[in-house]
Design goal:
By secondary structure, this protein is mostly helical. Among the domains are: 57 residues, Orthogonal Bundle (Annexin V, domain 1); 69 residues, Annexin (Annexin V, domain 1, Orthogonal Bundle), CATH 1.10.220; 84 residues, Annexin (Annexin V, domain 1, Orthogonal Bundle), CATH 1.10.220.10; 75 residues, Annexin V, domain 1 (Orthogonal Bundle), CATH 1.10.220.10. It contains 21 helices and no strands. It starts with 208 loop residues before the first helix and ends with a helix. One of its GO terms (biological process) is cytokinetic process. InterPro entries: Annexin, Annexin_repeat, Annexin_repeat_CS, Annexin_sf. Belongs to the annexin family. GO terms for molecular function: calcium ion binding; calcium-dependent phospholipid binding; phosphatidylserine binding.
């Protein structure tokens, strides 16, 4: 039997046994079919008989036949490229189409006969619907199909080998996710903190401690001291490049560098140089010791250091403090302070603050409500609640708490603290809030107070300029100019003098 669209050509398949015998109920011969030609499939015993009655060429679908569906516009046109008949045909699958009058001839291993072939059903674009599931293509060796009568392909799909049609208005195969507009983030964070290196002193390329100590030795040797050589050298080295000079000096000259510097220099310039020769943690431990020992206590120094250092830095400070001074920092604080201020300092000295960056806004609101209930919204003040939240929560979380508190209460938290507390605990709590809210603005305020008025608090000035020169000095300069309308560089120039001023200005890094 010929397939529509295939011209009869010489050299076809040789006759084989086991073909489809002509049976009653096949397509009747009609005018216009392809007659058997020489070289086609010749009639042979058991082969495909040259039966008149192939598919008639009909526009737009199958011809109307007895028992079939009437022809409809939009069916499958005859196409070139069908499957050639194979030996043995398709075996009949369980659950196939039952034989019907006028369908395909029922043969062993073939498709069961149906009335008029595939029924044409009206559908979008003229594509006919496939028969219902429950049979379908049979699985045969070398043929297409799925065992068990499973249907192959899409219902109403194209013939094998035909391209998938483009359905109008169909969505993309893999549409991209829609771009979501602005909304509440699932994991909101506190105010953005500037990232990257914000220090004013940077590593000097190719610095060598052994060569550097030669410069220092030459500057201090003989009559007089070349202070300019010392400040130029130290002012262009970072802490990690300055500290190794102490060991290199002792290795090279068998003398203590700190001792020699103290013997050659004087005043605030000496204090500044010695501070720069210590590691940051050693310097902090030394400053805490100076703030605690003696008759009075520098509470501002204690709260400044403990509220602005990271957990790792505080733990390192406490380790150095114990090894250097034979007493724990906690014991030193406890013996020199009292009340809620002591509790505040002891809590901060543990170095156990939460340091996660993520912020849960619902928890921030809860903490803001707790602070309001512990202060403004009650008679008296529950300082312990303030202590618990301000000393344990992460800094990004606390920044969110401060925002929520101001929205809820209509007043900044530090102003509420001033209304509810007094003395050292008030100063300490306010300093913690300010330092966490904006660390660089807090240090800008500290520097301004140190240089404001008749005298200069050089200890505070030296400590901040040394400790922040490799952390956030650029931000401090920016906030200083914003708050006071005058650059930090200019204020230092007008409030200090000599080599002390020159080295401070090197730590400052420039004018804004």
């Amino acid at each position: 039997m010929s397939y529509p669209g295939y011209p009869q050509q010489p050299g076809g398949y040789p006759p084989q046994t086991g073909g489809y015998p002509p049976q009653q109920g096949a397509y009747p011969p009609q005018a216009g079919v392809y007659p058997p030609a020489a070289g086609g499939y010749p009639p042979a015993a058991g082969g495909y008989p040259p039966a008149a009655g192939g598919y008639p060429p009909a526009a737009g679908g199958y011809p109307q036949q007895a028992g079939g569906y009437p022809p409809q516009a939009g069916g499958y046109p005859s196409q070139a490229g069908g499957y050639p008949p194979a030996a043995g045909g398709y075996p009949q699958a369980a659950g196939g189409y039952p034989p019907q009058a006028g369908g395909y001839p029922a043969a062993a291993g073939g498709f069961p006969p149906q009335a008029g072939g595939y029924p044409q059903q009206p559908g979008a674009g003229g594509y006919p619907s496939m028969p219902p599931a429950g049979g379908g293509w049979g699985a045969a060796p070398g043929g297409y199909g799925a065992p068990g009568g499973a249907q192959q392909g899409y219902q109403g799909g194209p013939a094998p080998g035909q391209q998938m049609p483009n359905y109008p208005g169909a969505p993309a195969t893999n549409p991209s996710m829609p771009g979501y507009g602005s909304g509440v983030p699932s994991n909101p964070k506190g105010p953005a903190v500037p990232k990257g290196y914000r220090g004013s002193i940077k590593d000097c390329p190719g610095a060598d401690p052994l060569r550097d100590v030669e410069v220092l030795r030459k500057a201090m040797k003989g009559f007089g001291t070349d202070e300019n050589a010392i400040l130029e050298l130290l002012g262009s080295r970072t802490s990690k490049q300055r500290v190794p000079m102490v060991a290199a000096y002792k290795t090279t000259y068998g003398k203590d560098l700190i001792h020699d510097l103290k013997s050659e220099l004087t005043g605030n310039f000496e204090k500044l140089v010695v501070a720069m020769m210590m590691s940051p943690s050693h310097f902090d431990a030394y400053e805490l010791r100076e703030a605690i020992k003696g008759a009075g206590t520098d509470e501002a120094c204690l709260i400044e250091i403990l509220s602005s250092r990271s957990n790792a830095e505080i733990r390192q400070i406490t380790t150095i403090y114990k090894s250097e001074f034979g007493k724990t920092l906690e014991d030193a604080i406890s013996s020199d302070t009292s009340g809620h201020f002591r509790r505040l300092l002891v809590s901060l000295s543990q170095g156990n603050r939460d340091e996660r960056e993520n912020v849960d806004i619902s928890l921030a609101k809860q903490d803001a409500q707790k602070l309001y209930a512990a202060g403004e919204n009650k008679v008296g003040t529950d300082e312990s609640q303030f202590n618990a939240i301000l000393c344990a929560r992460s800094k990004p979380h606390l920044r969110a708490v401060f925002q929520e508190y101001q929205q809820m209460c209509g007043r900044e938290l530090e102003k509420s603290i001033c209304r509810e507390m007094s003395g050292n605990v008030e100063d300490g709590m306010v300093a913690v809030v300010k330092c966490i809210k904006n660390t660089s603005a807090y240090f800008a305020e500290r520097l301004h107070k140190a240089m404001q008025g008749a005298g200069t608090k050089d200890t505070t000035l030296i400590r901040i300029m040394v400790s922040r020169s490799e952390v956030d000095m650029l931000d401090i300069r920016k906030d200083y100019m914003k708050a006071y309308g005058k650059s930090l560089y200019t204020h230092i120039s007008g409030d200090t003098s000599g080599d002390y001023k020159k080295l401070l200005l090197k730590l400052c890094g420039g004018s804004d």
